[in-house]
Write a structure and sequence with these properties.
49% helix, alpha+beta, single chain, 6% strand
């Protein structure tokens, strides 16, 4: 297999997922800033959506989208489970992963693309600068919603680390670096973030 990666929170989710499982896959670094992902051969042979990450399988087919890649790797390498060992655990992880993606990760990312990231993204996709502030506020609303729900537990989806934690951490950590800090009032999220930040998978170097 071959893993196409780059800067940004999306590839980081999968990179952390692999690190937590002890999976090593040869990597190909794609120059996102230079637009390598938006031109041939990458957007022809690897991912026609022009996004990272992507996982090329042994037979030559390619998987994209972080949840699909992680689901595939979970099936190939079931230890240590990060999505779940039972139908109920898997459903619960998928539920929380979807919640944090829609309520926090997506608006946070688009808030950046339409504001600080506008010079990079405007030539590549439809951008709505007038929506940036509102999207950032929506992401903060999502964090405010989640904060009391994780009181008294170490992880987002329950008692163990899961894909939901990795996804939320990668995007919140990205947000912190691009002017979307975590409100100190969200004490449970702050504590969780600190624990995630200290994990070896968050600091590979």
């Amino acid at each position: 297999m071959k893993f196409y990666t780059s800067i940004g929170p999306n590839p980081r989710v999968v990179t952390m997922f692999m690190a937590e499982k002890g999976i090593e896959i040869p990597q190909v670094e794609i120059d996102l800033r230079g637009g390598e992902n938006r031109r041939a051969p990458y957007n022809v042979d690897v991912n026609p959506a022009g996004q990272t990450p992507a996982l090329e399988l042994d037979a030559g087919s390619v998987l994209t989208e972080i949840t699909a890649i992680c689901e595939y790797l979970e099936e190939l390498f079931p230890e240590t489970p990060l999505i779940g060992s039972t139908a109920e655990e898997r459903a619960n992880t998928r539920m929380w992963t979807r919640r944090v993606d829609i309520k926090i990760c997506e608006p946070l990312t688009n808030g950046f693309r339409y504001a600080e990231g506008l010079p990079l993204f405007e030539p590549r996709m439809r951008c709505l600068p007038e929506a940036a502030a509102g999207l950032k506020a929506v992401a903060q609303d999502g964090v405010a919603w989640l904060d009391p729900l994780i009181a008294g537990r170490d992880f987002i989806a329950g008692d163990t680390l899961s894909l939901a934690d990795l996804m939320l951490f990668a995007f919140l950590d990205f947000g912190v670096s691009v002017g979307q800090p975590i409100d100190p009032a969200f004490t449970h999220i702050h504590s969780w973030y600190g624990r995630m930040k200290s994990r070896p998978s968050a600091n590979p170097n």
